[in-house]
Amino acid sequence: MTSFVSKLSKAIIAADNPLCVGLDPFVQNIPLIFGAPNKISTLEAFFNEVIDALQGNVAVIKPQIGLFEPWGADGFALVSRLTSRAKANGLLVILDAKRGDIGTTAQGYADAYLGPNPAIDCDCVTLNPYLGIETLEPFVKNALAYGKSIAVLVRTSNPGAKDFQDLMVAGEPLWVKVAQSLKPIEARLMDSDMSSLMVVIGATWPNEAAKLREILPHTQFLIPGYGAQGGSAEDAFAGLINKGNRMEGGLISSSRAVLYPQGAQDCENIAAWRDIFSQNLDNVIADLRLASENVIARV
C-alpha cells in the first residue's frame, strides 16, 4: 500500500507548489451568483467550482468541518460529497476536524475518517493531543493499515496558543514536550526518509517552526496562518527542508486569501468569477514560489 507521505510528495511535485487550500465557508463572502446566503445548495455550488478550479494547480484541500456543522446532517453530508469530488479530481484531502478523545470514542473517530469504510473519505485528519498521546493510537493504527495520516496540533497559529502551549514544563514549553512525545509515532509512520506523520505549526511562529524541525526532522508540517492570519510566505517556509532546488517537508495552508479574492462578490456570472478566482490563485502560488526561491537563495 502506498504511504500518505509518498502520495503527498508526488502531488506537491506535480503541482509545483506546497499550497493547501482550506475550504472555510463564510456565507457573507460567497458571491450571490452561487445562490441565496445560508442555503446548503449555495455552499455546494460554490465549493464545487472551487474544487474544479484547484484541480491540477494544488495538491491538497482542507475542509474545516466545524464551519459546515451549523447545517447539521446536511453540512456533514456536503463535506462528504466535496471530499469525494476532490479525490476524484486527484486532490488529497486533510479533514480539519481537530478530534481528541479516549478509548472507544477515539476508535470511532478513527474509523469514521481513516477507516476502511469512512463516513468522510479523507487522507488525513487533524487531531488534538492534549488528552494524552494514547488518544492518537487508534488513528495511528488506521493510518498504517490504510495508507493515511494524522496531523497533530503542536504549535497553533492563534494568538491565544500561548495560554497553554507556552507553559513551562520541566524547563521547556509544553508544545516542545508534545513534539518530543511524537517521535515514536514519526518512526512508526516512516517510509524511506520521511514520515507520514504531520504536525500543525502556525506560519505566525517561524522561530518555533525551526525548533520543531530539529525535534521532528522527518515529519510533514501543516502550516496554517499564511495570508489572512498574518503569516508571511517566507515565515511559512521556516520549518521546511531546503533541498537546494525546492523546499520540502510540508504544506502551507491558506483559506480566505484564496477563496474570497477582492472583486469576486461583484461578479455577475460564473465565468467572471472563474477568471478572478484563477488569477488570484495564480498570484498566491507565485507568492509562495518567490518566497521559496528567496529562502533557498539565502543558504
List key phrases describing it:
299 residues; alpha/beta; TIM Barrel; two-stranded antiparallel ribbon; 12 helices
Protein architecture, described:
- The protein is of the alpha/beta class and 299 residues long.
- It has a single domain (4-297), classed as TIM Barrel, CATH 3.20.20.
- The chain has twelve helices and 14 strands.
- The strands form four sheets. The protein has an eight-stranded parallel β-barrel, surrounded by seven helices.
- A hairpin with a 4-residue loop joins β12 (241-242) and β13.
- The longest helix is centred in the C-terminal third of the chain and has 28 residues, at 270-297.
- The mean pLDDT is 96.
Mean pLDDT: 96
Query: Tally the helices: what do you get?
Result: 12
CATH architecture: Alpha-Beta Barrel
Q: Mind telling me the C-alpha Rg?
A: 18 Å
| CATH fold-level topology | TIM Barrel
Outline:
It is built from twelve helices and 14 strands. The strands form four sheets. It has an eight-stranded parallel barrel with strand order 1-2-3-4-5-10-11-14, surrounded by seven helices. A two-stranded antiparallel sheet has the order 6-7. It has 299 residues and is of the alpha/beta class.
Please write out the topology.
Blueprint (H helix, E strand, L loop, with lengths): L3 H12 L3 E5 L16 H15 L5 E4 L8 H17 L3 E8 L3 H12 L9 E4 L9 H10 L2 E7 L6 H4 L2 E2 L2 E2 H8 L1 H6 L1 E2 L2 E2 L2 E4 L4 H10 L4 E4 L9 H4 L4 E2 L4 E2 L1 E5 L1 H4 L10 H28 L2
Parallel strand pairs: 1-2, 1-14, 2-3, 3-4, 4-5, 5-10, 10-11, 11-14
Antiparallel strand pairs: 6-7, 8-9, 12-13
